[in-house]
Design brief:
Order of helices and strands: HHHHHHHHHHHH
Low-confidence stretches: 290-294
Largest sheet: none
Strand content: under 5%
Mean pLDDT: 85
Helix content: over 70%
Distance between the termini: 40 Å
Radius of gyration: 23 Å
Shape: globular
Length: 294
């Protein structure tokens, strides 16, 4: 048993080494980002086992206590454990950011495929709408949508998702316009293949690789947008544990020396966004065909 485990680890290490030699520093950037993301995902999944207290427990220690052995990251103004709130808060920010990116990618890729393939008035009209949305600053647009909706997870997710739909649309539409002129697509038309089959079998597989990179980058950006919205008091009710909300609360006590309330949530937001950014940067370099020619 020990021999097989060590053999498997040795094989995995050799594969990592081979990939590192093939792609260089880009591979290790990707791995570092994946490790950060995996750590936060595990923290979110195992929150009940990892958190020493309930995130709403107001009897975890002295009020506004600095980091101690009882409260490793200190307590807030309501005597709640900061570490427990960070662990549980990972569920909120990950859920909102990833779900928003999934929703925006589904709509953006679908609209981009249909618009680029069909052309004509429909393509021009939809492109005009998407360009109009794309021209707005993302945070301002998200604030507008969040202010119009009732506070809640679904509302803030939709507010964040809307601003990324044009990103997928523009990317996929541009590639679809190019791919639909390829010979294999013309051959599929010639044998009578219906449009949905051509889109699904011949065009979609050739555009999905680049959307993976955009997805990772959008999750990183969505983390910052979600934190900004909750920091401003938009999107989520106070009963939901969130890093952005704790950041806003900690700001009030920073001037009086309680630095831990704002420092640790801020570091986690930056670290998680950096993880997805590194993953996206690594994928962008590795999926670049020109690198494979080296």
């Amino acid at each position: 048993m020990k021999h097989s485990a060590s053999s498997a680890l040795g094989t995995l290490f050799r594969r990592f080494t081979v990939m590192g030699r093939k792609y260089g520093v880009e591979w290790w950037i990707l791995v570092a980002g994946a490790v950060v993301i995996l750590a936060v995902v595990l923290m979110a999944i195992l929150a009940p086992m990892l958190a020493p207290y309930s995130p709403h427990d107001q009897n975890t220690g002295p009020q506004l206590s600095p980091p101690t052995t009882q409260n490793p990251l200190g307590t807030d103004n309501l005597s709640r454990d900061v570490l427990s709130r960070i662990i549980y808060g990972s569920r909120t920010i990950l859920g909102v950011a990833v779900l928003a990116a999934i929703i925006s990618s589904l709509f953006g890729i679908t609209f981009g495929l249909i618009s680029g393939f069909s052309g004509g008035l429909f393509d021009r009209s939809l492109s005009l709408v998407m360009d109009s949305v794309y021209s707005f600053p993302g945070l301002i647009l998200a604030i507008t949508f969040a202010a119009m909706l009732e506070p809640g997870i679904i509302s803030i997710t939709m507010a964040v998702a809307v601003i990324y739909i044009p990103t997928y649309f523009r990317l996929v539409r541009g590639q679809t316009l190019s791919i639909k002129e390829e010979l294999y697509v013309e051959a599929a038309r010639a044998i009578g293949a219906p449009s949905p089959i051509i889109l699904w079998r011949y065009i979609f597989p050739n555009v999905v690789a680049t959307t993976v990179v955009v997805f990772s980058m959008n999750v990183a950006d969505a983390i910052m947008i979600e934190a900004a919205l909750t920091y401003l008091g938009l999107g989520l009710p106070p009963s939901i544990v969130d890093w952005g909300m704790d950041l806003a609360m900690g700001k009030k006590f920073l001037a009086s020396g309680q630095w831990w309330m704002i420092t640790f949530p801020g570091l986690m937001i930056a670290l998680l966004a950096l993880g997805f950014t590194m993953l996206g940067e690594g994928l962008a370099e590795i999926l670049n065909p020109r690198l494979l020619e080296r």
